[in-house]
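Appendix B, example 12.
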Amino acid sequence: MTLSTHNLSFDEINKETINFDKDICKIKSFSGSERQIYLTDRLKQLEQCLTQILELEELQVKKAENGVGSIRDWDPYYTLIGHLFEGFIKTILMIEDFDNFFLNYNNENKPLKRFEDAKQELNRVLKIKNLDEEQAERMKEVLDYIQLQRNNFIHFPLKTYRIIGVKFEIYMVIKKLCEQNQIIFSEETINKLNNAIGRESYYRVAMKFKDVWEH
């Protein structure tokens, strides 16, 4: 028996990939139970991504403690954390209003597919939830910084720029978004997040932002 073969073409694959990404009709038409399954899967993916970032960060810390490299020289960090936050923001918007999210996903003026527009929509949602004003402003600042650094690092910069104290704020935003939106990760992941917060709190002794998280 002779197996038939198909010659692959990157032109075809690229077109299929673009069309596959654009086609969200099936997701939009999900029933209530299907939506819940879909959102649960998205949250599992986010938790997996967060866990991997925290574990890689722990590895960098151990290397630095053993005199191998520096804790601050891990370039892929902002590429990965940017990916996490974009998924986090979009999933929260889906949880808030599934229909509205997909109605505006490919909007011509402010598509929620874009990090910038999804970020602005999240800021609007947080205001409605009456989040503490200073915390809401800090969240906005952190998201802006992550977006900036993600864009910088994803293009493999010729030089890098880091400030001690920023990661503490990043991890506190993750924790606050989970609390605010009743997102429950496993105990193991929460412990890793709390350990990272404690570690970064220690590092920021010399340089830190105004504390807004004790409210």
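The longest helix spans residues 32-65. The radius of gyration is 20 Å.
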